[in-house]
Amino acid sequence: MKKITARHHSAQLFMMVISLMGWSLVVYALFHLPAIEKPFELLMLLSFIFICEHYPMPFRKGNSSLTFPIVFLADL
CB 3.0–4.6 Å: which of 27, 29, 68, 75 could bond 52 by disulfide? Predict the structure, then answer.
């Protein structure tokens, strides 16, 4: 029983370390963001994501929102 508890503790510690490294990378990236040069392109990108996610492309086995790259490349 102690062996399982030790594994559980080490797995939990490992996940905490990985999460801490990930969040520190996110914070670092947030402080080094460049200024947005072309806000119109960002607005178009967000609108295409919204359209493709809310109106997915139908397939035989369900729906897919993989149409986003095609729609975004059509704007370029």
Answer: 68
Residue 45 · residue 72 · CB < 8 Å: yes
Give the tens place of pLDDT for each residue, 16-71.
999 999 999 999 999 998 888 888 887 887 887 787 777 766 767 766 666 656 65
d(C-alpha 13, C-alpha 21), whole Å: 12
- Cα separation, 76 vs 73, in Å, equals 5
Contacts of residue 13, defined as CB under 8 A and 6 or more positions apart, other chains included, come to none
DSSP classification of residue 56:
P
